[in-house]
Specification:
Structural class: alpha/beta
Bound molecules: zinc ion
Number of domains: 2
CATH superfamily of the largest domain: Zn peptidases
Radius of gyration: 23 Å
Number of strands: 16
Number of helices: 15
CATH architecture of the largest domain: 3-Layer(aba) Sandwich
Helix content: 25-40%
CATH topology of the largest domain: Aminopeptidase
């Protein structure tokens, strides 16, 4: 066991925490967690299978529907009960042609990809002067109307961080930057990719426009292209920098998506279930391996491992949410449909496939005994305890809406934004040793929760 743990930890070049040597092997759940660290193949099987047989799963499209059918077959074949596809309507956006070309003063092409929920330039494209904003804050500070007829270029400074906090800092450039630029008159927006690597792979992702602001075309430049554009401004000596932009995405209107669910049935159906969530859809550029086939593989493997250790007290429900990437459609639909069915505790895996390094709950003060037992049980996998209050991820809206118990098993995000939403989100980027560490930690935590008779939140 330690050999594999060391391999997992070494891959991130982080300090190796002290390992507990508790005598856990008499407890079946702990024994299963240890075996998962050593040799889990279930999570890998899910990711390898869906990325190979289905590939990209853009929300609301036939590709996503093929992903649901594939996942239901997989869950049924693995022995899950009550496997279902719970349909919901959504507004669907799909990519078109994408091309960016600086036309003056230094004419050359750039690598760009459109952002979700943005408008088309039309097939002929548009050409306009570019206005450079080194940061989102600089854009916000621009006077009203000052971007009339212009293309806004929003750069930013995003660094890799273990806890993913760089995303919160740079993310607004994508999440709301195009809407802010449009409200000041911009005809289009280009942003520096929200990503931490220097490959010529632009990072897509969703954006949204404020009420009353018409969506405009908007795209992300790869990091090297954004660097180049910044240098052009430095060398332009006051001459206007102009760009020709062709982005032809389409809004398809209302189509159907769905949430795939499956259960490990508990011995006491009167107890609220443990909800373990992920999302099944992906962006169209890669094959959605780390975002988020890995998460679905991890939570499913944990549920199966807990069942293998002996039928749990509580039901474990797997939620593979649909249409997360273009607006959390599945998470919201699931909450709306099931709000009156109490969930004991919700957990989500949606941050890649690298190892878990920190444990957080929202019941450390209200149920200190359970929080401490969970933290202690996963210390041997190199997971630190934390006083941060868990808030849950995109796919467990229901737990937040119910005010229920939430656990965050924080994954190492150092590499995540090198791959996130790019064509490079593919199976080969997953480190099998770190994926197994994930499954081991999840097996331990879900096993304890599913066999916990008392109220998880402790209120
Ligand atoms: Zn995701």
């Amino acid at each position: 066991m330690h050999k594999h743990l060391l391999a997992a930890v070494a891959a991130t070049s982080l300090a190796i925490p002290a390992l507990a040597h508790a005598d856990h092997h008499e407890d079946p759940v702990s024994g299963m967690a240890d075996r998962a660290l050593d040799g889990d193949t279930i999570a890998w099987d899910f990711v390898e299978g869906i990325t190979t047989e289905v590939g990209p799963r853009q929300p609301g499209t036939p590709a996503e529907a093929r992903g649901r059918a594939w996942a239901m077959d997989w869950l049924n074949a693995r022995g899950f009960a009550n496997v279902a596809d719970e349909p919901f309507p959504m507004q669907t956006w799909v990519r078109g042609e994408e091309e960016a070309r600086v036309t003056a003063p230094f004419a050359q092409g750039m690598h760009i990809t459109a952002l979700g929920n943005t408008a088309s330039t039309g097939p002929e494209g548009i050409e306009a002067e570019v206005v450079y904003f080194p940061s989102y804050a600089d854009l916000v500070a621009a006077p009203e109307g000052s971007l009339a007829g212009k293309i806004a270029f929003i750069s930013h400074d995003m660094r890799p961080t273990q806890d993913g906090s760089g995303y919160g800092f740079a993310g607004p450039a994508r999440w709301t930057g195009p809407g802010v630029a449009a409200s000041k008159g911009a005809v289009a927006t280009v942003i520096r990719s929200i990503g931490t690597e220097n490959h010529r792979t632009p990072h897509t992702g969703g954006t949204s426009f404020p009420d009353g602001v018409e969506p405009t075309p908007a795209g992300a430049l790869s990091n090297p292209d954004a660097d180049n554009l910044e240098r052009m401004f430095a060398r332009a000596q006051g001459r206007p920098v102009t760009m020709h932009l062709t982005l032809t995405p389409q809004f398809l209107g209302e189509t159907m998506s769905g949430n795939v669910v499956g259960e490990i049935t508990g011995t006491d159906p009167s107890l609220p279930p443990v909800l373990v969530a992920c999302h099944l859809d992906s962006w169209d550029l890669g094959t959605g391996a780390i975002d988020d086939a890995a998460g679905c593989g991890i939570v499913s493997a944990a549920a199966l491992n807990v069942a293998e250790a002996g039928q749990p007290l509580r039901t474990i429900r797997v939620l593979m949410a649909g249409a997360e990437e273009t607006g959390l459609w599945g998470s919201e639909a699931y909450s709306a449909a099931h709000i009156d069915e109490p969930i004991a505790v919700g957990l989500e895996s949606d941050f890649g496939a690298d190892r878990i390094w920190r444990f957080e709950s929202n019941f450390r003060e209200s149920n200190p005994d359970l929080h401490a037992r969970l933290a202690q049980a996963i210390a041997r996998f190199g997971v630190a305890n934390s006083t941060n209050v868990a808030t849950g991820g995109a796919d467990i809206n229901i737990s937040r809406d119910q005010g229920g118990a939430i656990i965050d098993l924080q994954q190492d995000g150092t590499r995540y934004f090198e791959l996130h939403h790019t064509p490079d989100d593919t199976l080969d980027k997953i480190d099998p040793a770190q994926l197994r560490q994930n499954v081991a930690v999840w097996t331990q935590v879900v096993g304890l929760l599913a066999n916990e008779p008392g109220d998880i939140l402790g209120e």
